[in-house]
């Protein structure tokens, strides 16, 4: 080892440099030889010239170097100025605008249906004169329904096809029947126009109670919620159990529209009380009255027990079931105290019957039942 | 001189044993491909082959034609870098 060290350290720089050069040239020669072997093998195996194109093709695909043309020989805006005739509307359209035009013309693109729906929604808006900027309002969700739009509902299907084929020729006449893609409603069903604006519920059509007669109102009110929204003055078209309005509201509306005597609420809630009264089973009723003595007696209830015929008019803050039970308890208390109490229970029961009964029933068969009891 | 040759032999041996030679080779090959040296030389090969005729080309023909040209065509940057590395190695291991 010592000998090697001594020999190595004895080298001077020139020799080192020469050595470095030698090593370098060895490396380069290795690289060249490697290439030669590769090429030779490719030649002998026959794949050396495979990646070349033949001369003929070379001439065909040569790079074009003329002015006004790109390297493939194509003119840049060759089709820009050409015009095509639309097969649908037979107008001549610029080539670059042809595709979007066709989309709208045929009514088949994404945008075209959106625009059509929006147009219809805004035309309905103008027709119904509703206040339209209420997106974040609760009442927006009322399926308000316009009487006028019901007429247009019948034309909906034919309009759809007609509308699409003639779309671009429709003048901006909002009242034209062709443009009325309608807003036909059953309870809770959405119209087409809603789909165009997913964030705006269909608020622009609703029942205007002023236009309806009393019979119509009554029939409406028996099936629908009917609560009049403050903002649009229209009636809610949802079912009787619509979650947006309370029973109190519904009752108030009926009182308002139909008059005090005719208010009726065919609710499922009150089945317990009204049905058993209708069955005229006084005993059962009495037992029910005595059963529930624990519910609160609202002040309006005691007032109603005095005013037997008109207690349905009073607006009770509590929910219906509770107030009716409260009434029961007063009746029960009355019943328990004997004949004097019996008469008061009679009146309270009369009040009960008035509130729950349908308007056509005669007021009290109650005295006859309690004659038996007494 | 024999000392020199002995010394050279030693160094070469060290170069190989430590794997530095292989590394340098790979480095050179990569750099030459990168800078287009390979393609240039290949084109030259094509000419030679077309000249000599496809069937009768031998390895010797190619080597004789290609190697001198190859040596010349190596770009300066590649050469410098390689020499630098070799000198570094020598400096580290020769003294």
TrEMBL record, chain A:
One Gene Ontology biological process: regulation of transcription by RNA polymerase II
Biased composition (Low complexity): 116-125, 294-312, 344-353
InterPro entries: SAGA_su_Sgf11, SCA7_dom, SGF11
Keywords on record: Activator, Chromatin regulator, Metal-binding, Nucleus, Transcription, Transcription regulation, Zinc, Zinc-finger
Record text about domains: The long N-terminal helix forms part of the 'assembly lobe' of the SAGA deubiquitination module. The C-terminal SGF11-type zinc-finger domain forms part of the 'catalytic lobe' of the SAGA deubiquitination module.
Segments of skewed composition (Gly residues): 329-343
Protein name as catalogued: Ataxin-7-like protein 3
SCA7 domain boundaries: 212-279
Annotated segments matching region Disordered: 116-193, 292-374
Zinc finger (SGF11-type): 84-105
GO molecular function, one term: transcription coactivator activity
Keyword Metal-binding: yes
Subunit structure: Component of some SAGA transcription coactivator-HAT complexes. Within the SAGA complex, participates to a subcomplex of SAGA called the DUB module (deubiquitination module).
Organism this protein belongs to: Oncorhynchus tshawytscha
Gene: ATXN7L3
Protein's UniProt keywords contain Transcription: yes
Protein purpose: Component of the transcription regulatory histone acetylation (HAT) complex SAGA, a multiprotein complex that activates transcription by remodeling chromatin and mediating histone acetylation and deubiquitination. Within the SAGA complex, participates in a subcomplex that specifically deubiquitinates histone H2B. The SAGA complex is recruited to specific gene promoters by activators, where it is required for transcription.
Family recorded in the similarity comment: Belongs to the SGF11 family.
Listed GO CC annotations: DUBm complex; SAGA complex
Ranges of biased composition (kind: Acidic residues): 133-142
Major location category of this protein: nucleus
Compartments it resides in: Nucleus
Signal peptide positions on this chain: none
